[in-house]
Input
Amino acid sequence: MNSMEEKIYRASPAVQLVLNTLISHSKVGIMIPIPQYPLYTASIALFNGTVVPYYLDESKGWGLSTEELERSIQKARSEGVEVRALCLINPGNPTGQCLAWDNMKEIVAFCKQERLVLLADEVYQTNIYTAERPFHSFKKVVKSLGSEYDNFELISFHSISKGMVGECGRRGGYFECTNIDSKVLEQFYKIASISLCPPVQGQLLVGLMTNPPQPGDASYDLYQQETTSIFESLKRRAEQLAIALNKLEGVSCNAAEGAMYLFPTITLSAGAVAAAKAAGKQPDELYCLDLLNETGVCVVPGSGFLQKEGTWHFRSTFLAPEEQMEEFAQSLSRFHAKFINKYR
Output
């Protein structure tokens, strides 16, 4: 096993570095989940690769089936695409799901069978809100499978920018390479060396995240108090917002198992779809822009993350201060009723 702490200030440049190294021509394919975090489609396009989409199943809590993975890779190969890697975001962004242990084992077996490098985006691993679906790292899963997987190629990404340390403010990150050939690691170091060192604050916080205070340390009690308080508040906000969203007409929202987002599906009328088309916008984009203009609340349309044709979504964080969540929910409810009635 080889480990590497990248000279970067967050995990996003690490993802770009790995994709840049993997993609050597336009027919190199990278499998990515849909809905997806736009970093992946944008980076693959930048490096002139091919996106190989696979769809998460909203009806099953944004679950992932190996049947869907097989459909996706076979379609790509039939079109002459050389699929080299499978990317997973766990816990999910924008969908907030967390993969089950058995499902992860199936995914690892799929990658082994298809000779794919597994890219595990695990930056939300401390944002887990349900005891029924705990976080497991893909490295842990691979190591549990025995000697047959001793050469399994895995690259794992983590960041302080999420979780309890950075809270989407401070930036710092790294990636770890497991069973990656030394010649490939040399290329990683070569590309990374183009960049300057990350800011001191980022380096310090990565150190704090990977080596937190231990029992008996002077700062242990305060660290536990602060991180626990942040976590419990995020969990309450996630539950409160999901309840509020599910009360809206034509809106259905899975609970957040992890991460910092809810990704509700919204049913929009033919009138709203026609109005969006006349304005040169996607229907969920029209909804989100009207929401912003009327209430000052900013959510991101699902069309920005890609989604199944004919469905509409938006992504909302639950990062607003807890004392503002009730006001936020009420503003959203008033706007939603007005929007639905306008285009009914």
Summary: Confidence is low (pLDDT under 50) at residues 1-9.
